């Protein structure tokens, strides 16, 4: 039976979990929850019974002297509550921090979910860190996954498709799904060649991603400076070993090559649309690429095209005309003859000009024909005159017998 004594009523509570061990490369995840507990001065209100879940030969208890008195600390999982109050928004965080249990994982998860139910937790966020082929000189990749398709769409997360061995993070997320509790896992990739804890850079990356998810500003304290110091230290160690330096360079080239598609035309267009949305406070177009005239390729363009969407109804609405649209409209009017009436006049004028040109061509053809006929007539008349002249010179026409006889008589 779960007893919650001294726990006040919580405001929009979110449960943040992290477990040392297989799911915590570089102690990045457990350090993130520890940072939240220190910054907001968390108060422990419950601890799970170590006898039920831990093998003490694997996770041994520790002994310490406190005021000259020996005290044994048993490995367990503790729950604390903090008030995340940044002045703008307040909400409570239930922090679950412990060691991955050695046994009875289903009972362990059921007990955690029992506390979540009693406290009215709205969502469970589980932090994890894994070893990956990522260079320490680049930003730490953090992936957010969930097994809930609706949650994946609403929070812009990936729907988990992992198959293979899993740890307590995967088991707890699946238990949340069966219990109907929204659950998200945030995973940071830690360079495998520098996996020893601590890794403040990975811890910082997890906290930044968590801040975006729960919409609460998280005080980072000295974590930013610790992250820079950690990277400088790894840089020095890598510079002292030529093989390590060469390997890091190969990882950098592979990472940069993998990210080249982000510089594609579509990515640039999406980034430009995001800039316009931030500037105008409006959602962007549903599809297509922005064109110079303000429309969309592959859609209905133009100044009046409904390429902006109303966030309340989801329907398109006309874009407000801009000064650039007015200039474009004037230019189009000038190019087409200044409107319908002027355009009709221009068409009529062009038709008259064509008709006049055809009439001129017809007149020129008639004149040429008359000139040819006149020339032929002149040529015929000249031939007749030459024949007559030849008859006068001979005194007779040799084409007739009587004439020939008369000529010989003379």
UniProtKB/TrEMBL annotation:
Compositionally skewed regions (Acidic residues) per UniProt: 355-364, 373-382
Organism domain of life:
Bacteria
UniProt feature, compositional bias: Basic and acidic residues: 342-354, 383-410
- Region span, Disordered: 278-410
User: Which portions of this protein are annotated as coiled-coil regions?
Assistant: none
According to the UniProt entry, which residue ranges have a biased composition of type Gly residues?
Answer: 295-304
GO cellular component assignments: proteasome complex
Q: Where is the signal peptide?
A: none
Recite the UniProt keywords alphabetically. Proteasome
Q: What is this protein called?
A: Proteasome assembly chaperone (PAC2) family protein
């Amino acid at each position: 039976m779960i007893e919650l004594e001294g726990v006040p009523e919580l405001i929009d509570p979110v449960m943040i979990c992290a477990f040392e061990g297989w799911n915590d490369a570089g102690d990045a995840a457990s350090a993130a929850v520890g940072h939240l507990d220190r910054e907001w001065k968390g108060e422990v209100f419950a601890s799970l019974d170590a006898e039920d879940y831990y093998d003490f030969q694997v996770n041994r208890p520790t002994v310490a002297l406190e005021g000259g008195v020996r005290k044994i600390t048993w490995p367990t999982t503790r729950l604390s509550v903090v008030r995340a109050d940044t002045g703008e928004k307040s909400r409570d965080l239930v922090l679950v921090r412990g060691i991955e249990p050695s046994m009875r994982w289903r009972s362990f998860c059921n007990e955690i979910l029992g506390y979540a139910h009693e406290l009215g937790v709205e969502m469970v966020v589980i932090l994890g860190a894994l070893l990956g082929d990522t260079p320490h000189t680049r930003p730490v990749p953090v992936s957010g996954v969930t097994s809930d398709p609706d949650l994946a769409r609403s929070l812009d997360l990936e729907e988990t498709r992992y198959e293979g061995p899993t740890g307590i993070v995967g088991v707890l997320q699946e238990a949340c799904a069966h219990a109907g509790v929204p659950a998200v896992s945030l995973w940071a990739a830690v360079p495998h060649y520098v996996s020893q804890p601590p890794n403040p850079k990975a811890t910082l990356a997890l906290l930044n991603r968590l801040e975006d998810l729960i919409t609460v500003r998280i005080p980072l304290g000295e974590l930013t400076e610790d992250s820079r110091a950690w990277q400088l230290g790894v840089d020095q160690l890598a510079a002292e070993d030529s093989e390590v330096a060469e390997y890091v360079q190969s990882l950098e080239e592979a990472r940069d090559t993998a990210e080249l598609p982000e510089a594609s035309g579509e990515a640039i267009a999406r980034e430009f649309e995001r800039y316009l949305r931030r500037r105008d406070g409006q959602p962007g177009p549903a599809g297509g690429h922005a064109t110079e005239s303000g429309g969309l390729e592959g859609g209905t363009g133009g100044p009046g095209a409904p390429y902006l969407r109303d966030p309340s109804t989801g329907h398109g609405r006309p874009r407000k005309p801009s000064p650039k649209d007015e200039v474009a409209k004037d230019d189009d009017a000038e190019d087409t003859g200044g409107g319908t009436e002027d355009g009709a006049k221009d068409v009529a004028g062009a038709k008259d000009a064509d008709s006049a040109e055809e009439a001129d061509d017809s007149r020129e053809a008639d004149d040429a024909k008359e000139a040819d006929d006149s020339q032929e007539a002149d040529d015929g008349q000249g031939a007749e005159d030459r024949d007559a002249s030849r008859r006068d010179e001979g005194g007779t026409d040799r084409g007739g017998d009587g004439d020939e006889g008369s000529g010989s008589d003379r």
